[in-house]
Amino acid sequence: MEPYGPADVVPQLVHVLYWDRKERFLIDTDIYPAWVMFAVCEGIFDFRIGDHGGSATSGDLVICPPGVPLWREVVRTLSFFVIHFHWNLPDSRQTIGETSRLSQLPQGKVTLRDSRRLSSTYQYLHDLWPKRDKLHRRRQNLLLNDMWLQYCLETEAARKLEKPADALMQKAVRLLEARAYDSRFSMKLLSAELQLSPVQFTRRFKSQFGKTPTDFVVNLRLDKVRQMLLETSYPLDQIAELCGYENGFYLSRVFSKKFEMSPSMYRSVHQI
């Protein structure tokens, strides 16, 4: 199975701590049982996580996976959040347990450019920090998700600036969007229509958009499946037919693999 990208997952808060004007760390190296994020409000610290190392300051997030030693040293008086979290799929309450599928997520330092937005998030998070009831934890989790959303949006925007638009791949997107829900759709025939081999098409599409055309179609189909599960009472075979799948059994396999829950469970959990 392919690893998840940043846009495929969301962080689920375990707990958050805030440290104000810290002059040094009590322990210079620590290992955490969950993912951990050091979000710097003020000051500077040096860090090392495996092959990743450097200095972090305001606007930086330092992300460390579980079980990996994190060495750190305060350089200038430090105010920061320590956020412990797991990774979930966006529409699943289950933690992603397969660490191999998280290998493409950032580790070490990432920098968020929109400092005003991040500063506002930090202020709200600080206001909520001492409180531990369910309401405030839920709000803390929403703020953590907003930080992750900001990272994803800024990363995607930077990628678009780096690469000129590929007119042929823009055409491919339009054709995929128009044909994705037809179970007779053939990626091989579309490649030929674009005068590319399937391998050339896949590489060129992924270079432009960061995902394969197959993944793009699967996402389109499953977005429509989720919408129909929540907005209609159609049986799964009928939804499968309308979303490009041959039958409900195959759709259920694809859906369960992607979201780690069956379509029927998704409908019962999310339908109002």
Overall 3D form: globular
Which architecture of the largest domain does the CATH hierarchy give at level 2?
Sandwich
Ends distance? 32 Å
**What is the rounded Rg?**
22 Å
For the sheet with most strands, the description reads: 7 strands, antiparallel
Number of domains: 2
Tell me the series of helices and strands, N- to C-terminal.
EEEEEEEHHHHHHHHH
Give the tally of β-strands. Answer: 7
Low-pLDDT stretches: none
Supply the CATH superfamily name of the largest domain. Answer: Jelly Rolls
Structural class: alpha+beta
> What top-tier CATH class of the largest domain fits best?
Mainly Beta
CATH topology of the largest domain: Jelly Rolls
Average pLDDT number: 91
Multimerization state: single chain
Strand content: 15-25%
Total count of helical runs of at least 4 residues: 9
Organism: Paenibacillus oceani
Keywords: Activator, DNA-binding, Transcription, Transcription regulation
GO molecular function: DNA-binding transcription factor activity; sequence-specific DNA binding
Domain HTH araC/xylS-type: 170-269
From the structure above, extract its key features.
272 residues, alpha+beta, Jelly Rolls, Arc Repressor Mutant, subunit A, 2 domains, seven-stranded antiparallel beta sheet, 7 strands, 44% helix, 23% strand
If you had to describe this structure to a student in words, what would you say it looks like?
By secondary structure, this protein is α+β, with helices and mostly antiparallel strands. It folds into two domains: 6-161, Jelly Rolls (Sandwich), CATH 2.60.120; 167-270, Arc Repressor Mutant, subunit A. Helices cover 44% and strands 23% of the residues. The protein has helices at residues 115-128, 134-162, 167-179, 187-193, 198-209, 213-231, 236-242, 248-259, 263-270; strands at 10-22, 29-30, 35-49, 52-56, 60-64, 70-88, 108-111. Strands 1, 2, 3, 4, 5, 6 and 7 form a seven-stranded antiparallel β-sheet that branches. The longest helix is centred in the middle third of the chain and has 29 residues, at 134-162. It is globular. The two termini are 32 Å apart.
